[in-house]
Amino acid sequence: MRKVTILDGLPGALTDPDLLTSYRRDEADLCEAGQPLAVVRPTTTDEVVAVVKWAAQHGVPVVAQGARTGLAGGANAVDGCLIVSMVNMDRIVEVDRSNRIAVVQPGVVNAALSRAVAQVGLRYPPDPGSWETSTIGGNVATNAGGMCCVKYGVTTEYVLGLEVVLADGRVLRTGRRTPKGVAGYDLTRLFVGSEGTLGIITEITVALRPAIADPLTLVAVFPNTASAGDAVNRIFTAGLAPALLELLDQVHLAAIERYQPMGLNTQAKALLLAAADRTEDLDAIAQLCRDAGSGEVWQATDATEAAELLQARRRAHPAMEKLAMETYEHGGLIIDDIAVPRTRLAELLDSIELIAAKHGVTVGVVGHAGDGNLHPNIVVNRDDPDSVAAGHRVFDEIMECGLALGGTCTGEHGVGLLKRDWLATELGPVGLDVQRAIKTALDPANLLNPGKVLPL
Predict the structure, then answer these.
(1) Measured between alpha carbons, how far is 91 from 93 in angstroms, rounded to an integer?
(2) What is the pLDDT of residues 166-199, one digit of tens each?
(3) With helix as H, strand as E and coil as C, how does 186-234 read?
(4) Comparing C-alpha atoms, which of 385, 378, 313, 334 is closest to residue 352?
């Protein structure tokens, strides 16, 4: 007689050991990951409700996952959990051109939505670096940013409404379809960025914008990162509104060129990639870069050249992964996500360089300079505990510096496992108590993505 298990009450549960291993973690290096009990891949809200009710009945933790492109361990499994993979809920339910909204399931890939709405003359602006693979549900769960957010805003500014399955299996609808609406507490924004700890998002209503012409693009080369930070300050002090303003340091330039050669100046200490919607704005940005010390400014002459420059920026993460593996047989990255006021950017860049030198650790800096949001990539040897410990010391000192400069512990990657303790430092005891009270009210048994975001 076949042995009966609790999973017999959960149709469609997958338990193959190799499959379970593949669902253990997202792309965050060196974050702990547990062993799941099973994986389910629902296609409808009703199926998610059934799964959550089953988990509540049996006291099984639930970890919702999208494409697992996250960089903070927020989608990592915990021991004995049920993984709810949302990738099969991938329908674009509706695109309403007149009201400029779209309704999508969480498994829709960001680039797929962008291309679909472009066919009717609309645009979905949030554009994380992983836009070709990351899902809208994951973007909402982490409140993802992107390269164009300096002008057009991050994910939360485009989420009008949500359908969410709560911890007890009830279905909550938040928000609206109208451009304006202030009825009641803003529950939509509460769930955006909650990383699956308050409910499982099953449908998303997003605002769209009219399509625009491809922005004009330039690159400016700098003798040091501080002068690049100075250029950023000059651009915003002048009242300009770049559509994109990205920074790459020398470590990243060299890594990208090795990853896929495209003629980047690997002798440059820093490079700013800027875009603007008007020629006169781009010309002004170019002059301000020269005033800040750039010895070389080059403007793309057509959309093809501009797209190649943007693609170089999108290659930053895989290029650094390759660099880590070339540096050590089992190299890895600890990726930070610190954001400071734009006026403190140069100070942060200088401090990162000093911290890296003090500990003898390779740190490459890339980020959204226009937002003051940098991603220091800390290279470590996974096989050497001393190397990993040094990497964590560098990480902590960068975090401490960023908060001291009036910054935040995460600009767009989320808290996950990586930033739990630093979130507590940033929030303070009262802020932490309030957030824990919200978690307890919505998930009293602590079954939804337990151990993530809030410190234990």
Answers:
(1) 6
(2) 999 999 999 999 999 999 999 999 999 999 999 9
(3) CHHHHHCCCCCCCCEEEEEEEECEECCCCCEEEEEEECCHHHHHHHHHH
(4) 378
Burial of 146-170, coded b for 16+ CB within 10 Å and e otherwise, reads bbbbbbbebbbbbbbbbbbbbbebe
3-state secondary structure of 449: coil
Strands 38-40, 82-85: pairing kind:
parallel
pTM of the shown model: 0.94
Q: Report pLDDT digits (tens) over 223-281.
A: 998 899 999 999 999 999 999 999 999 999 999 999 999 888 899 999 999 999 889 99
Under a CB-based contact definition with an 8 Å cutoff, are residues 24 and 76 in contact? yes
Q: How far apart are CA 66 and CA 248, in angstroms?
A: 28
Backbone CA torsion sign across 355, 359, 360, 366:
negative
- Give residue for tokens 């209503």: 205
Strands 373-381 and 363-368: antiparallel
Beta bridge partners of 22: none
Cα separation, 443 vs 32, whole angstroms: 23
